[in-house]
Write a structure and sequence with these properties.
The chain has 205 residues and is of the alpha/beta class. The protein is built from eight helices and eight strands, in the order H-E-H-E-H-H-E-E-H-H-E-H-E-H-E-E.
């Protein structure tokens, strides 16, 4: 239920703005951003009129393949390098969701994200698959510069904070760094010990 509610609000905001790409990040590790990204993608898959792609760009510490229990023949890093077509680096879920992951850590993640091919690869997915929503699971913002290389190529960013772990100062720092690069869609508080009626919801701007 929380992910379906998040899906509804996300679609409302993104469609109202004409946005198609959302990055999901966190200030630090262990906030549950990849879990949120995967469950949001699976929730969107239940919307038959929404074509969704989930891209794992937390390439230094990939986790989606392990969570899914399977992986495509090729890693997504191969597609971003231009070595393989996207369909060889993606798993299809139903008729309207593709998930691209990495089985192993990628040592040249910074070079991939800084290459000229990176934005062209994203655009090719939009054009080829007519995606409505592209979800990008990114590295934690405060642990590397990879997220900021991605930020200028997305329409908005959703920040996942962990209760009893993420500080207000860390969220403020993320907001400052994103300012001028992209739009901060909001913050979701994750890993709450006590789940109230509004559990899983943060603020949307």
């Amino acid at each position: 239920m929380p992910y379906d509610m998040l899906r509804t609000r996300l679609l409302h905001h993104m469609r109202a703005k004409g946005w198609r790409r959302v990055a999901i990040t966190s200030p630090t590790a262990e906030c549950g951003k990849s879990t949120v990204a995967l469950n949001l993608a699976l929730s969107l898959q239940r919307q038959p009129d929404c074509r969704t792609i989930l891209l794992e760009m937390d390439m230094r510490r990939p986790s989606l393949a392990a969570m899914l229990g399977c992986a495509p023949p090729a890693d997504m890093a191969h597609f971003l390098r231009g070595d393989r077509p996207f369909h060889s680096a993606a798993l299809r879920v139903g008729d309207n969701l593709a998930i691209s992951s990495n089985r192993n850590p990628v040592t040249d993640a910074a070079q991939i994200l800084a290459s000229r091919f990176f934005p062209l690869a994203l655009s090719s997915l939009d054009d080829t698959y007519a995606t409505d929503i592209t979800i990008i699971d990114t590295p934690p913002m405060l642990l590397s510069h990879d997220m900021m290389a991605i930020a200028k190529h997305v329409d908005c960013v959703l920040v996942i904070a962990a209760a009893d772990l993420t500080t207000t100062d860390q969220i403020d720092q993320c907001e400052r760094e994103l300012s001028g690069q992209t739009q901060m869609l909001g913050v979701i508080l994750n890993k709450c010990r006590q789940q109230g009626p509004g559990y899983g919801y943060g603020t949307y701007e």
